[in-house]
Write a structure and sequence with these properties.
Radius of gyration: 18 Å
CATH architecture of the largest domain: Roll
Number of domains: 2
Strand order of the largest sheet: 1-4-3-2
Helix content: 25-40%
Number of helices: 5
Largest sheet: 4 strands, mixed
Structural class: alpha/beta
CATH class of the largest domain: Alpha Beta
Number of strands: 8
Distance between the termini: 47 Å
Oligomer: single chain
Length: 157
Amino acid sequence: MARNTICLWYNGDAEAAASFYAATFPDSEVTAVQRAPSDYPSGHAGDVLMVEFTVAGVPCIGLNGGPGYPHSQAFSFMISTEDQAETDRYWDAIVGNGGQENACGWCQDRWGLSWQITPRVLMEAMAAGGEVAQRAFEAMMPMMKIDVATIEAAVRG
């Protein structure tokens, strides 16, 4: 187990979520499933309690803790993409599997976890600062899924 691991709270479906992430993102896998040794407030002995997995190389644990703590946009995974095809693939996988679109390249999976599907060209433009960043930012603001060609045009001015 990694020294620092992100623990994500689920309402009984951590294994399904981890399996989806492993099937969707490269360098992702489910590495262990641990079952509850006895009953607990949100489940019973033998239920899946924790799932160890990685998402794009980041170690995580999914904890089936019950309905008490739903996900919010205060935490998100930011997935950097190389082009429109990769952006579309991840966005469509998340939104098309019961998720929902949000503004500025954010979407939410069916378990309520937020994702930022962010093309590198946008991050590079923001890092450039000045007028380039301003044009890219203004182009991004009305978008749901990021349109790479529109960001590239904004960068060029």
